[in-house]
Design a protein that fits this description.
Strand content: 25-35%
Largest sheet: 2 strands, parallel
Distance between the termini: 24 Å
Shape: flat
Number of helices: 1
Number of domains: 1
Low-confidence stretches: none
Oligomer: single chain
Order of helices and strands: EHE
């Protein structure tokens, strides 16, 4: 399983992108401040 760090200041984008990536089998860590 691949792990992805996702950074964006928009929580809606973080949620939708992380849900999509997790559905494809990725492990996702989200950060809203980078």
């Amino acid at each position: 399983m691949s792990k992805i760090a996702l950074v964006d200041d928009d929580r809606n984008i973080l949620t939708s992108v992380s849900m999509t990536l997790e559905a494809e089998g990725f492990e996702v860590e989200t950060y809203n401040d980078g």
